[in-house]
Automatic annotation (TrEMBL):
It is found in: Cell membrane. Keywords: Cell membrane, Membrane, Transmembrane, Transmembrane helix. It is a multi-pass membrane protein. Residues 1-421 form the Major facilitator superfamily (MFS) profile domain. Pfam families: MFS_1. Gene3D superfamilies: MFS general substrate transporter like domains (1.20.1250.20). It comes from Bombiscardovia nodaiensis. Its main location: membrane. CDD domains: MFS_MefA_like (cd06173). This is Major facilitator superfamily (MFS) profile domain-containing protein.
Length: 428
């Protein structure tokens, strides 16, 4: 007589998951409020849009530069302690900014220094929130956790800017004050999580990375572990394929989003209407995140990636012939509806199957591969828009990239990735 299959425990009944979700959400909201305020403060200090843009770009650039080293740090040290450090350091930096503004001592140079510190902090240990999750929940629940995260991201995308604008109207320092309090909440929630994942690995017979006090030896060990992480990722066929698929779709999305915004700016479109594009994508992403959980449990993950990649391609096709504001709004909103399921499948399988001891480095490889091309995309888009029929050219390139992503999803071993319930038996 066969034993009935046991239903997985709800994520929300797991105390560790609730604590992690509180910490991670606090971090994301703190970043949203802070990054909303930075360009406004920079412009208020200098009166220069270009300077404000440079200050904003500093953090994203430093995050990408620091990610590889950060992934190795996260795999070497207690992730719970790193989360606590992230929260405390974020709170301290936020309160320093508040103090400088309240004392009327903040200059553009000091603001840039604060942004540099935040960029390094996020790049070096910001991934500890992601890396610790594997040790807190079963692999079978990882896809669901990713779908919940997509919904959370959509909610913050919808309300983050609105809340930031209200706080900024109270005083320019208030968004930083709020982010400081959120960072403290992150630290407090992380403090209540279980101990070091590395100690847990050791108890399971997995040897955590060794480190030594001798500086040259420590540096060599650090470099060796970073190299091991990159080599590990490159030897996992599906990891590489999914990373390439994600990069293609990420570049395509950046092309269409940036191309749309720059085109509308060039037409002197009302800024409120331009902002409505993000609102539309956020609203449909929230709906898509609710749908993502159902899709992941009813459609094999590999097929879902192929279907959604094709659907993203189809959502861009009308823009080859139409370039009105409403066509742009509808097409981008449709993309927002599709991306949560796609992201939950991509990230859920990769990090659900990545060993605890490799979570930080695997995340660094994945995020760098997706982030670097997307960081270059706006410059390429701006150049392309100067050409005859520039917007159509940008959309055509995005369509070509999504076709390539669909082909990789449908014609390679990615297609055979099963539903999350069977991920344990699937190979990465």
């Amino acid at each position: 007589m066969s034993t009935p299959k046991q239903e997985p425990v709800s994520l929300w009944k797991m105390r560790t998951y609730r604590l992690w979700f509180t910490a991670d959400t606090s971090d994301v909201m703190a970043v949203s409020l802070r990054t909303f305020a930075v360009p406004l403060i920079a412009f208020a200090l200098t009166g220069s849009e270009s300077t404000a843009g440079v200050v904003v770009a500093i953090e994203s650039t430093l995050v990408l530069v620091a990610l590889p080293a950060g992934g190795t740090l996260i795999d070497r040290y207690d992730r719970r302690k790193l989360m606590i450090l992230l929260g405390l350091a974020g709170a301290l930096l936020s309160l320093i900014a508040v103090g400088l503004m309240q004392a009327h001592q903040l200059t553009i140079g000091l603001l840039a220094a604060v942004v540099v510190a935040f960029g390094l902090l996020k790049g070096l240990i910001g991934g500890s929130n992601d890396a610790i999750l594997k040790s807190l929940i079963p692999t079978s629940q990882f896809a669901k956790a990713q779908a919940v995260r997509e919904g959370r991201e959509a909610c913050i995308s919808l309300c983050g800017s609105a809340i930031g604008s209200v706080l900024y109207k109270l005083a320019s320092s208030v968004p930083f004050l709020a982010s400081g309090l959120l960072y403290l909440l992150e630290a407090g929630s992380a403090f209540l999580l279980p101990g070091s994942p590395n100690r847990q690995l050791a108890s399971k017979g997995e040897k955590p990375p060794e480190h030594t006090s001798a500086a040259p030896s420590a540096f060599r060990a650090f470099a060796r572990e970073l190299g091991e992480g990159v080599r590990w990722a490159l030897t996992k066929r599906r990891f590489v394929l999914i990373t390439v698929i994600g990069a293609l779709l990420n570049i395509a999305f950046a092309l269409v989003e940036t191309g749309t915004q720059l085109t509308l700016i060039g037409r002197k479109t009302d800024p409120l209407l331009i902002g409505l594009l993000d609102t539309g994508m956020g609203a449909t992403a929230l709906l898509g995140s609710l749908l993502a959980g159902w899709l992941l449990t009813h459609i094999p993950t590999g097929r879902l990636l192929a279907y959604t990649s094709f659907a993203v391609c189809a959502s861009y096709l009308p823009l080859l012939a139409l370039s009105s504001y409403w066509a742009m709004l509808i097409c981008l909103s449709l993309t927002g509806l599709l991306l949560p399921g796609l992201n939950a499948g991509l990230c859920g399988f990769i990090f659900g199957k990545t060993p605890d001891s490799m979570q930080g480095r695997a995340n660094a490889v994945f995020e760098t591969a997706l982030g670097l091309p997307a960081a270059i995309t706006p410059a390429l888009t701006g150049f392309a828009l100067q050409l005859p029929h520039g917007f159509t050219l940008v959309v055509a390139l995005a369509v070509a990239l999504t076709i390539a992503a669909t082909a990789l999803s449908a014609l390679t071993s990615v297609r055979t990735i099963p539903k999350p319930q069977s991920w344990e038996e699937a190979s990465l």
